[in-house]
Design goal:
Arc Repressor Mutant, subunit A, Tet_transcr_reg_TetR, TetR/AcrR family transcriptional regulator, transcription regulation, flat, single chain, mainly alpha, about 220 residues, transcription, 2 domains, Tetracycline Repressor, domain 2, repressor
Length: about 220
């Protein structure tokens, strides 16, 4: 006798675009990007793989939708016009994007490989460009600054998540780096090892973000 919880008996499981993306994000958090396949997602939803292609023609389309979902709410971090100095408002946006990507395992890897054009992603971009234009940056400068801030944030978070990924052979572990430096003649690296091997990624991020925003301030003049 079939039960309502059985995905293989009775009426077919009902899915839609929203539920599919949510299930994909759950699988991402559980197993990581490399293990996320359309077949595993279909199994989790209790449907045939073909049912997924009604909503996403390719896995890349699915990843783009996942990236768009991740960016939800990031645009609000800037606050209303006049809510702080332009550089602080821009910093809040960058921090919000990093936080959104860190909220999911391999979040930065998913986001980096997509070019979403949904309201969450475009809203974030529009907020950052708006902050810069309101501060007196030209349109071209604001557009390139958007790329610079976004690329820095995503790239930093990629490295951060790779370093913290267990057993995946990502960035060199602190012990391996110390041994390599000690085995050679690298006096400057030896002097800075405490910071180079630090896992205080928030501090690393804030330092780089400050350099970037100070550079933008110099561009504006």
């Amino acid at each position: 006798m079939s039960t309502p919880s059985s995905p293989t008996r009775g009426r077919p499981a009902r899915i839609d675009r929203t539920r599919t993306v949510e299930a994909a994000l759950d699988l991402l958090d559980e197993s990581g990007l490399d293990a996320l396949t359309m077949r595993r997602l279909a199994d989790a939803l209790g449907v045939q793989v073909g049912a997924l292609y009604r909503y996403f023609a390719t896995k890349q389309d699915l990843l783009t939708a996942m990236a768009e979902r991740m960016a939800g709410g990031a645009a609000d971090a800037a606050g209303p016009p006049g809510d702080g100095d332009w550089s602080e408002r821009a910093a809040r946006l960058a921090r919000a994007l990093r936080t959104a990507l860190l909220a999911h395992r391999d979040g930065a890897r998913v986001f980096a490989g997509t070019h979403a054009t949904g309201p969450n992603t475009l809203g974030f971009s529009d907020s950052l460009v708006g902050v810069l234009r309101e501060a007196g940056f030209g349109d071209g400068e604001a557009a390139r600054a958007l790329y610079a801030v976004t690329h820095f944030t995503v790239g930093h978070t990629l490295e951060e998540q790779a370093a913290l990924r267990p057993g995946d052979g990502g960035t060199p572990e602190a012990g391996a780096l110390r041994e390599a430096v000690a085995a050679g003649t690298y006096p400057h690296l030896a002097a800075t090892l405490p910071v180079l091997t630090s896992t205080d990624f928030a501090a690393h991020f804030e330092f780089g973000l400050r350099l970037l925003l100070d550079g933008l301030r110099a561009v504006r003049g």
